[in-house]
Structures are given as C-alpha cells and as structure tokens.
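Friendly challenge for the regulars: who can give me the structure tokens for this chain first? No prize, just bragging rights.
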Amino acid sequence: MGKIFFRYSDFFIASFSALITNLTILTFFAKYEEPLYFHPDEFMWLRLISHCGGEFPFYEQEWGLIVPLLCLIYPLKLIIPVYYFSLLRPVFLFFDMYLFLKVLRLIFSRKVALIIFFFEFSHIFALFKFFIIKDVKAIILAGMPSTLRIFNPIYFMAFFLIFIYYFLRFLDGAEKWKYNPAKYSKEKILSGIFLGISFYSQTHWAVFTLSIFIFFVLIMFFLERKNRLLIKEIISVLILGIIVGFPAILFNLYQKIMLSGSTLNLLVILNYGRNLDMLAFPLNLGNFITPLFLLALVSFIFSRRFSAKYIFIFSGFLGGYLLFFVEYILGIFIANISMHIVYPFKLMVKIGIGLLIDKIEEIKSERKINVLGVITSAIAIFMFLAFVCTKLLSFYYSISHFSVSYEKLENFKKIVHWLKNNSSRDSVITHEDFSFFFPSLYEPMALPR
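First reply, four minutes later:
Bragging rights claimed.
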C-alpha cells in the first residue's frame, strides 16, 4: 500500500488538497442542493459558455465574447446544467494542483516540491492576519478558491501549467542530451502548441505567457550566443506558438470590431493618455508582491544555477514583475493587466523561491550538515499544517457566514419559480439584496436549471 501511495503520491496529494479546499462548496451543495459562487464574474463566465452553443444572440450581449478554450467544456452541459458548473471547481482545481506538482518535480526534490506546493495553496499571509487581528473575512477568502475563480484563473491556469511542464522538459532534455534535436522533438512541439493555445485562453494569460517567453528568448540570445543550436530550437518553439495562436489573434480582433461596451475589458485594449493615478500601483496589489519577488531574485542568484531551465524560471518571475509596471512606464492601459497577472506571477515567483530551499538541501547533502535538513523538514511540516489549518478554519467560519444567505435564497427561489411560470419571457426582474457571495442572485433567466 505504501509503495502504491509513493508511486502515485502526486495524484493522491492533489486529490486531498482539492477536496479539502472545496469542503465548503461540497457541504453546501449536499445540504441545500445549490451551487456556491464567489464572484459575479463567475456568472459572466457561465454566460460566455452559453455563447459557445449559440444560446444567446451574439450581437446583443454586452458580454458576448467567445473564448475558444472555454468552449471545450460546453458539451458538459449535456450532463450538468450550466447553473451547476460550480461543481466542476474541485475537478479543475485538482488538475491545477496535479500539474503544478508535476512541474515542481521537474525542478526540485520531493520535499522541496511539497514545500512550494503547500506554500502556493496555503495562504499563510491571511492565516497570520487571522491569528494577529482576527480577520475572519480574510481567512474565508483565503481558505476557499474564491481567489481562484472557477474559470479565470482555475480553468485557464491548467493550460498555462501544461505549457510550463512541456517546455521545462524540453529545456531539461536539451541539457541532458547535449542539444540533440531528435531527442526532444516531442517536448518541443508540445510546448510550442500549448504556447499557441494560450492565445485561445483569457487574454491576460496569453499576454503573460508570451511576454515571459520573449523575455527568455532575449536573455538566452545574449547569454548563449555560442550555443546557436539551442537558441534556434527555442526560437522555433516561439514561432510554432505564434503560428498556432495566430487564428486566435484574428478572431479576437473580429470580436473587438463586432462588440463594444464592457466586453472589451476581456480583450487586450490599448488606451493612451489614461489617468494612471486611478490604477492600483503594483506595490499595493498585495503586500506580498514585491517581498516575494525580491526573495525569488535572491534565491535565483544564491542558487548559482544559470542553465536554460533556470533562466526560464528567472524570466517567469522577473518578466512577470515587469508587467506590473507596463502601464506606468509606457502610459498605456492594457485591460487591467496588473490585477490579472497576479496568478501566473505567484506561481513563477514561488518556484523561484524554491531554488533557495533546494540549494539548502544541496548544501546539506554535499557537506553533511544535518541541521539544514531538519530546517527544511520543519518548513515542509509548517507549510502543510498552514494549508490544512487555513482550509479548516475557512470551512468552520463559512458555515455560519453563508447559511444566512442560503436561508434568504429559499424564499427567493419561491418567487423566482412563480415568476418563471407566471410572467412572459421578456420580463425584467430586479431585487435589492446583497450577500457576501452571489447565489442569492440566482440568475433564473440566464441560467435555467
């Protein structure tokens, strides 16, 4: 039994983590037979799924955008009504966690991979706030995937991680097989394809992925001029990605012409002369942004690993950090990019921090300093306990917090069902109510059960 668990440990760890993260969602569905949504944008994404099937007139919808990757899950509507797509959240989150573990295992030992994995999903900063100032709202937000909304970023993040996985395998193979193209052609092709697929995703994922890749190409061009074969292979990945993604660029331009209003917020919009003082300065996006970046930068330098694989990791968090300042340096507003690239940036910056812990493990092995192993083991235990503690505290406080809204929902549902049976299809229904989360909106007309 132990051998089976060890062999498939990534699967079991991802399953356990996704399950405990979604305890609140699963519990409330079991009790009330209702899905749980955390943000109004999640309803917007549900509408976009319906656009894939042509259920709404394309030209009449303010949010009439079609996101090709989102349409891959449209056939699930034949099994699960769109209103209940929130229940897919544990499944999508499982894939993200599993893929993230696979990416980490390409770089680190098992112990270090687990440290970074639980660091990413533990929300230890919110946990500290809870114990210091009893911030219950912070622990509720951090303990559940409310900051990882079901479609953006949870659903789209999986494609980003698949690209990272295959590209790291490609770079790793380039080092091990002495740049023999025939040995790693599969990884090269797949990484190029998934780079291109990012163009079919929500636009900010494409902006982040393409930007850090081009940044990586530029660094490699100046550092590895003698290794022309490696640079040529890396550029071929970029070219393949652009070729695969080019139809998505044309499609988005077509949609931009067809649509107007707030729909354009989902596309890359360049607005010159915007009042940038109205935008949140990157340092204020979260107190963790700059400290984590600096720690990752120090970790990279201290690790003294400058092969292509590690330079790509460096490009991921440095290039991502520079994107926060694009709006301020160029005077161009790019569709709220500062707020949307936080998720891939956090992934890359924490991988960068892992380089420091991995270097400590390396020093322990080389110099037989056992106390360093004790320190890293203590960090691993702390991260795991922080993860479990955050999720359980969130679950505990969520029960009473959300139950009030679900009681309101029962009364609202009775009104909704009466209106559906006793009013015309073009009726307009409004209500005055607000809850910390949004099932009380119910969206009866847009999301039929």
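Strands lie at 270-272, 332-334. The chain is about 65% helix and 0% strand. Your move, everyone else.
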